[in-house]
Amino acid sequence: MDESHHALHDRLDQLSSVSDAEFVAAFETLLKEVRNHFKDEEQAMADIGFPGVLCHRGQHAQALNALQQACLRVREGAIAEGQEIAGLFSQWLHFHITTMDRMLASFLQHAEALKADCAAT
């Protein structure tokens, strides 16, 4: 999960340095990567029976919806708006990782420890 988070932050950093001509494609790539990351994370939550899955999934849905709407605007030429949304998403992602994903990571570690204990006995 940490590697995926680093990849998203790298993509956001790259987005801030691309030209206006490259921005649409870069934003679309970000949207695709975010969608895939959320899908993988939600599958992991389902696999372990994470109790906070509904709240966590709801946050993903809201963020993804905002990015999808922004992508539509970016495709229409609203590059500055897309850059602003990317910056806001970067802040949201940092907060989400330090709160919701930290809780999920702790639960995953606990689930793995239980699995290891059961396998050892």
Write a structural description:
The protein has one domain (2-120): Four Helix Bundle (Hemerythrin (Met), subunit A). 89% of the residues lie in helices and 0% in strands. The protein has helices at residues 2-15, 20-48, 53-75, 79-120. The longest helix is centred in the C-terminal third of the chain and has 42 residues, at 79-120.
> What is the CATH architecture annotation?
Up-down Bundle
Q: End-to-end span in angstroms?
A: 28 Å
Strand content: under 5%
Helix content: over 70%
Uncertain stretches: none
Instruction: Report the mean per-residue pLDDT as an integer.
Output: 91
How does the major sheet shape up? none
User: Structural class, from secondary structure content?
Assistant: mainly alpha
Enter the CATH topology name: Four Helix Bundle (Hemerythrin (Met), subunit A)
Shape: elongated
Main traits of this protein?
121 residues, mainly alpha, Four Helix Bundle (Hemerythrin (Met), subunit A), 4 helices, elongated
Short description:
This protein is mainly α and 121 residues long. It contains four helices and no strands. The chain has a single domain, classed as Four Helix Bundle (Hemerythrin (Met), subunit A) (Up-down Bundle).
Write the layout of secondary structure elements.
Blueprint: H1 2-15, H2 20-48, H3 53-75, H4 79-120
Helix pairs in contact: 1-2, 1-4, 2-3, 2-4, 3-4
